[in-house]
Specification:
By secondary structure, the chain is α/β, with parallel strands linked by helices. It has 2 domains: about 260 residues, Aldehyde Dehydrogenase, Chain A, domain 1 (3-Layer(aba) Sandwich), CATH 3.40.605.10; about 190 residues, 3-Layer(aba) Sandwich (Aldehyde Dehydrogenase, Chain A, domain 2), CATH 3.40.309.10. Helix content is about 40%, strand content about 20%. It is built from 17 helices and 21 strands. The protein has a 7-stranded mixed β-sheet with strand order 15-16-17-13-12-18-19, with helices on both faces. A 6-stranded mixed β-sheet has the order 9-8-7-10-11-20, sandwiched between helices. Strands 1-14 form a two-stranded parallel ribbon. Helix 8 links the parallel strand 7 and strand 8. The longest helix is centred in the first third of the chain and has 17 residues. The N and C termini lie far apart (about 80 Å). The relative contact order is 0.14. The structure holds 1,4-dihydronicotinamide adenine dinucleotide (NAI) and magnesium ion.
């Protein structure tokens, strides 16, 4: 373990222009204007590697959300609602281009704000965000209805019926901090492609990259009010958005606990809701798997983004015969990972995003040990400043332990042996309230498919993990959510279907 935390601010490592951008309190975007909160309040945004303040950001609350919702309604009824799909598509495509033109800057912001390595944000978060806009731009012109032959028995042949998909309207979107820019892209791009307007409430831990994206949205030619971005806290700005009567639909990514609150808030006027929530995903290794590829893939499955992934492969089921070898291989990988500040080019893993998450993850480590689990490696915090936690592999667990049942959202793997790839393995893998993702590692293609078919998860990866694509639907079974993100599937989150019938005889 090699921990490198700098004594001076990580701000020194970013270009002067970005430092200047951060030197001013960052306003919110409402109706195409950059404004401070109506209350005048701001909140601090910190660097999780140094615990130092990066900047302050306008703190939106119910009054700002209300102004943003009104702006979104006016834009829907105004130029955006009248814009041709082709022009809309071109603007969305231009947003993707602008993200790529600002690749380094956005990756720097993401690294400073979230703690993740710049080198990772530069090849993953930012290009994937751009791709989401590029992919979705094509859908703007391809949202088609259907001619439907009806059998109306009283007057056969007298009617022409077809469906007309329409934007659902004003959408409230609430996103988390683990992939701040990418989560904004996953939400905004399909809403724009379908012709909706948006109020986006960004996570209080990581508002910066979405605010910079807001500047690029306006530069791309988005009319005023189509996207409004309000930073603020969950129980004020977030709750006000989920409950606002002027919002037609709420799209949320975050904890299952808050997902329930969103559903309650939205139930008053029966807003449509889509949810992308937590996970405790099983990753299954059969004894005939390619061991080296599995060790590398399972390590990335849990340690990528410091384990702060809803789809992290956090329960690794390993067939008995190869258990020791695979678990030891992952532990050895964990020990090689260089922890440090995200802007250091040598850093492979940064800190957790916040003091709260640091407390949560170290609390789980403590609870695991108290319940009898053993750390093959890691098992504790690292360094004396910043929210660093050592990549950890836990063994000797029992199915009832909290570390096995609950989402930890940190670099903590639970490794569990199994005897045979039979019904009891499937039952153990599915023994969770979640159903977001799963993995299977084997050289037996037919067996992999059989297992994949029986796993209750929205995504199954075979001999790979964390393979995401703008074209692939992603979302959860069970308490991992409602609806799907990305791909053609996400469009239905943002559309209403109108059936139109005209008399033709
Ligand atoms: P959270 O669910 O509280 O926060 C996510 C978003 O919801 C943030 O924008 C937050 O401001 C907002 N929010 C919070 N309370 C709200 C409310 N009452 N009404 C409306 N919006 C509200 O997640 P948090 O506290 O950051 O993390 C807690 C746990 O949630 C993590 O340890 C992890 O297990 C899980 N999580 C899952 C994510 C995923 O990608 N599915 C992302 C982030 C967290
Ligand atoms: Mg919370």
């Amino acid at each position: 373990m090699n921990i490198q935390t700098t004594d001076s601010s990580t701000l020194e490592r970013v270009p002067a222009a970005l430092r200047e951008w951060l030197a001013k309190p960052r306003p919110m975007l409402i109706n195409g204007k950059w404004v401070q909160a109506k209350s005048g309040k701001v909140f601090d945004v910190n660097d999780p590697a140094t615990e130092m303040r990066l900047t302050t950001v306008a703190e939106g609350d119910a009054a700002d959300i209300d102004a943003a919702v009104r702006a979104a309604r006016a834009a829907l009824d105004g130029p955006w609602g009248r814009m041709s799909p082709s022009v809309r598509g071109r603007i969305i495509h231009r947003i993707g281009d602008l993200i790529l033109e600002h690749l380094d800057e956005l990756a720097q912001l993401e690294s400073l704000d979230n703690g993740k390595p710049f080198s990772v944000a530069r090849v993953a978060d930012v290009p994937l965000s751009a791709d989401m806009f590029h992919y979705m731009s094509g859908w703007a012109t391809k949202i088609e209805g259907k001619y439907i032959p009806i059998s109306n028995l009283a007057a056969p042949g007298q009617y022409l019926s077809f469906t007309r998909p329409e934007p659902i309207g004003v959408v409230g979107q609430i996103i988390p901090w683990n992939f701040p820019l990418l989560m904004a892209a996953w939400k905004l791009a399909p809403a724009l492609a379908t012709g909706c307007t948006v109020v986006l409430k960004v996570a209080e831990e990581t508002p910066l990259s979405a605010l910079r994206l807001g500047e690029l949205l306006m530069e791309a030619g988005l009319p005023d009010g189509v996207v409004n971005i309000v930073p603020g806290f969950g129980d004020t700005a977030g709750a006000a958005l989920a409950a606002h009567p002027g919002v037609d639909k709420v799209a949320f990514t975050g904890s299952t606990e808050v997902g329930r609150l969103i559903v309650q808030a939205a139930s008053r006027d029966l807003k449509k809701v889509s949810l992308e929530l937590g996970g405790k995903s099983p990753n299954i290794v059969l004894e005939d798997a390619d061991i080296d590829a599995t060790i590398a893939g399972a390590s990335a499955g849990i340690f990528f983004n410091h384990g702060q992934c809803c789809n992290a492969g956090s329960r690794l089921f390993i067939q008995e015969k190869i258990f020791d070898k695979v678990a030891a291989g992952i532990a050895a990988n964990a020990e090689k990972i260089k922890l440090g500040v995200g802007m250091d080019p040598l850093t492979e893993m940064g800190p957790l995003v916040s003091e709260v998450q640091y407390g949560r993850v170290t609390g789980y480590l403590k609870s695991g040990m108290e319940e009898g689990a053993r750390a093959l490696t890691g098992g504790a915090a690292a360094g004396n400043r910043g929210y660093f936690v050592k990549p950890t592999v836990l063994v000797d667990t029992k199915p009832a332990m909290k570390v096995v049942r609950e989402e930890i959202f940190g670099p903590v793997l639970v490794a569990i042996p199994f005897k045979e790839a039979d019904d009891s393995l499937i039952a153990a893998a599915n023994d969770t309230i979640y159903g977001l993702a799963a993995g299977v590692w084997t050289r037996d293609g037919a067996k992999a498919q059989q297992i994949a078919n029986r796993l209750k998860a929205g995504t199954v990866w075979i001999n790979c993990y964390h393979v995401f694509d703008s074209a692939l639907p992603f979302g959860g079974y069970k308490q991992s959510g409602w609806g799907r993100e990305m791909g053609q599937a996400v469009l239905s989150n943002y559309l209403e279907t109108k059936a139109i019938t005209s008399r033709i005889h």
